[in-house]
Amino acid sequence: MASPSSCFLLLLLLLFSGQVIRGGLSMAVGINYGQIANDLPSPGRVASLLRSLNISRVKLYDADQNVLSAFLNTDVEFVIGIGNENVSAMTDPAAALGWLEQHVLPYLPYTKITCIAVGNEVFKGNDTTLMADLLPAMESVHQGLVSLGLETKVNVTSAHSLDMLGNSYPPSAGSFRQDLALFIHPILNFHSATKSPFLINAYPYFAYKANPSAVSLDYVLFQPNSGVVDPNTNLNYDNMLYAQIDAVYSALRAWGHPDIEVRISETGWPSRGDGDEVGATPENAAIYNGNLLQRIGMSEGTPLKPSVPVDIYVFALFNEDLKPGPTSERNYGLFYPDGTPVYNVGLHGYLPPMSPSSSGMMMMMPGFRAFVFALAALILGLEVAASGTGGRKWLGAEVTAEDICHPRGPRWCQVWQIRDGR
């Protein structure tokens, strides 16, 4: 039977690791966490904000080690990214394996990385070399996961722009661009073989901005409207986003892949824009994202796939002040960097203060957590060698000084398995 001191110390470990049991269900919505800014809160504070919002699905555009470390021992699932600038390098299987060993392996299973997006909107530009390298890079990353025994836990995909469609109206006639067939066909074969999702960045805002006189604002904002009927299926669409999703499903089916799941890796609405960016207002952004969150909360499917709840990552968590391009690009965030909402969509979170004296900050500091683990291990009576070898075996794993003091990764987390064996 464990001694009272052991129970107390294990409770202490639980508290300082942030593993306090919380009530309520996590929101089904995902959020894009971009970091092209110079005024964002630290990843540890962001972890607290998302926890307070009950959001447990996050998409990154890289594999930021500070972010992944800040979310150790949380229930947040991550999509991490390999930027376009690194896609060509990933065609080398050794490089892909090395990338996985550095950016994925040290964090699993304590940070829940479930998906790797190789490249972003590769087919939006004219770089045919990048286009040709995309599939080999995806294959190399997947093979690396296989060699590490992680292929059933982490899938490989890429996020695409709707520009890859040659036709999107009506949704039943959705089709891919024929000039991209050489690249897209084998990528679809890869998705079918690996059972990985097909990611699309879809923005009804762009359609409205391009032709506000012809596109109904109510239709793109999920507001009450008469809808648009697909003449081939007689399905009625009351919003553009669902029509865009079903256009992608139709394109996949037309090329022989009705089995591939479509997920929306980005969608959102800017709260500010330049003079020629019609509709970019906080009012419209609040309506779009507010209605979108309600639809997601209802586990709603599209007219073509009514029994399959839409899977969506909202863009974005914060406004990003260093993003290039028009003003709208810097104003897609749901929150300002200080944690206050840009507009009200019913999300009320808490961003901890920056004060290092706060208990929240102490819990975020890997060094402090490592100290608590080391102290507890010593009191529990572990005879740990000062070097990285010769440690004591505990629950089948050798525990060394390096295990206790390692600030992140599997060896550090083995300390969780310590129990009183005296």
TrEMBL record:
Its transmembrane ranges are: 361-385
Recorded hits in SUPFAM superfamilies, A to Z, give:
(Trans)glycosidases
Q: Enzyme class, one word?
A: hydrolase
Keyword Transmembrane tagged:
yes
Q: Which GO terms describe its biological process?
A: carbohydrate metabolic process
Reaction(s) catalysed by this chain, per the record, are: Hydrolysis of (1->3)-beta-D-glucosidic linkages in (1->3)-beta-D-glucans
Molecular function terms from GO: glucan endo-1,3-beta-D-glucosidase activity
Instruction: State the EC number(s).
Output: 3.2.1.39
Among its keywords, does the record have Transmembrane helix?
yes
Which key words are in the record?
Answer: Glycosidase, Hydrolase, Membrane, Signal, Transmembrane, Transmembrane helix
Task: State the signal peptide span.
Answer: 1-23
Known Pfam families for this protein?
Answer: Glyco_hydro_17
What family does the database annotate?
Answer: Belongs to the glycosyl hydrolase 17 family.
In its UniProt entry, what is this protein called? glucan endo-1,3-beta-D-glucosidase
The organism's lineage is: Eukaryota, Viridiplantae, Streptophyta, Embryophyta, Tracheophyta
